[in-house]
Design brief:
mainly alpha, 75% helix, 0% strand, elongated
Length: 156
């Protein structure tokens, strides 16, 4: 993507230097109206690509933020039966995979830190786990949420 932007910028700068683009309203008669329109189209395309690149760079952080919100709601949702726990576990595994994939597009280091947890802090005291496996998964989820929140805060 950057290579395309650099190519457009270099072409536009070169054409500007040799006087083909009529920016100041002074007729240069060096180019046909087609070339002038083509250069304007190229400059608009380059500006659009620059804006798109900025949006693309920003979107992984936004996606992590959205997944963090989803994770908080999932972690805080009550689980009162084995059937609910099985559904919760499926949603947890899906969420975990999705947040690690999103982190991988943002930062390989962050993705590695979310995939392999070297430590876990406790989950909120208001959450009552159904069993020991639920408590373990809540701890994993809380640690992932904590690390993602820290990353988002430092990169916004």
């Amino acid at each position: 993507m950057r290579a395309i932007l650099y190519l457009f910028s270099a072409c536009f700068a070169l054409l500007s230097l040799i006087g083909i683009v009529n920016w100041l309203g002074i007729p240069n008669r060096l180019a046909t109206p087609f070339v002038d329109h083509l250069l304007v189209a190229v400059s608009v395309t380059a500006a659009s690509l620059l804006f798109g690149a900025a949006v693309i760079r920003r979107s992984p952080i936004e996606r992590l933020s959205q997944l963090r919100k989803i994770g908080v709601r999932l972690r805080n949702s009550p689980v009162t039966s084995t059937t609910e726990f099985e559904l919760w576990t499926e949603r947890f595994r899906s969420w975990r995979k999705e947040i690690i994939d999103a982190a991988n597009t943002t930062s390989k280091r962050l993705a590695d830190r979310l995939e392999v947890l070297n430590e876990m802090y406790a989950f909120p005291a208001a959450i009552i786990p159904l069993n020991s496996e639920h408590a373990r998964l809540l701890g994993i989820m809380s640690e992932i949420l904590r690390r993602v929140e820290k990353y988002i805060e430092t990169h916004r």
